[in-house]
Amino acid sequence: MVDVEAKTGLVGFFDILGYQQMLLANDVSSTARIVVDVLSEVPDNVIAGLLEDHGLERGDDLASWPESARYFQGMVREEMDWLLFSDSIVVSLPLDPDEDIFLVGTRIVGFIEVCAVLLRQMFDVGLPLRGAVSFGEFFIQDAYFAGQPIIDAYQHSESLDLSGCVLAPSLERMYGQVKQHAANAGFEASMLGMLDQLCVSYLVPKKRERVETGLMVNWVNLPMRFFDGLPSDLREYVYSSFVAHNKDVAPAVRPKIDNTEAFVRKIVQNVEPRPWPWMTPRMDEAFRDLKSGGGE
Predict the structure, then answer these.
(1) Rounded CA gap, 155 and 12, in Å?
(2) Is 164 left (phi over 0), alpha (psi -120 to 50) or beta?
(3) 139-144: long-range contacts, CB 8 A cutoff, minimum separation 24
(4) Spatial separation of the C-alpha atoms in residues 140 and 138, rounded to whole Å
(5) Which DSSP string do the residues of 33-77 spell out, in sequence order?
């Protein structure tokens, strides 16, 4: 009998666009290997991106890392769960909304960063994703999964008519609260700018020619050295991902390509890529207070 223990937290649901066509046109083992390799690389790349702007390396002694960086590293490596089945990816992270706002904010922003890196890496290997991130009570164990945030994330993901990721209303509210608290608590302008860069308000294209304003994850111009700069021909960049691995482009897919290109252009022209400065003096001060039991 399966021991059912529900968790409360964040859930990301992602659908690989064109994956069935890719399986029909290519060897199954090599196709699956591409996806598995990307999933295994994402946590390491997120940690590398966290450290690189602060002169640290992954091989450095953890004791030399600031408190906030050690917490972030443990969260990404040890607490996030990944589930791959068929053409879908489910990512989850426990989160207690009653914890200190610094921990809640770190978990929310860190989770979205992981999703952004996943989206960009999959797009660059010719496997564009569409997805959504939600919050609530869920259960995931082996191939069993259930819960309202999984349903919400799936439904929002399925409604998208582009490659990208939207925040479900349950998480969009929490993200707004994190941003407001960061401003009220006197965080550095670089941190506030990062929050504005990571999720952007956008008129999201949905199926059946519907549109709806929402927050979308910026996966386009991530400030990490291991991502190449985008080419000048953005149309070719987007189109190449959709047709990679010998995939065909059916007429129904063309709106997704056009809408994805429009989103990429929006980000490139309007969102300046900045470092993701988790280890700011204000952030480290907050984590030191938490560790010492001082709180706020």
Answers:
(1) 11
(2) left
(3) 139/4, 139/5, 139/6, 139/7, 140/7, 140/81, 140/83, 140/90, 140/92, 141/2, 141/3, 141/4, 142/2, 143/83, 143/85, 144/2
(4) 7
(5) HHHHHHHHHHHHHHHHHHHHTTT--TTS-GGGS-HHHHHHHHIII
Strands 129-141 and 164-167 come out as: parallel
Decide if pLDDT at 294 tops 60. Answer: no
| Closest residue by Cα to residue 217 from 156, 148, 137 | 156
Closest Cα to residue 114, out of 81, 163, 67, 161?
81
Q: How many residues would you count in the chain?
A: 296
Q: Which residues contact 87 (CB under 8 A, 6 or more apart)?
A: 15, 16, 19, 20
Q: Tens digit of pLDDT for each residue in 42-89?
A: 988 888 877 776 666 666 666 767 777 788 888 998 999 999 888 899
Nearest to 266 by CA among 212, 216, 208: 216
Please tell me the distance from the alpha carbon of residue 14 to that of residue 78, in angstroms, as a whole number. Answer: 21
DSSP-H helix ranges across the chain? 19-25, 28-52, 67-74, 101-124, 148-159, 169-184, 189-198, 234-243, 254-270, 281-292
Dist. CA 82–CA 74, nearest whole Å: 15
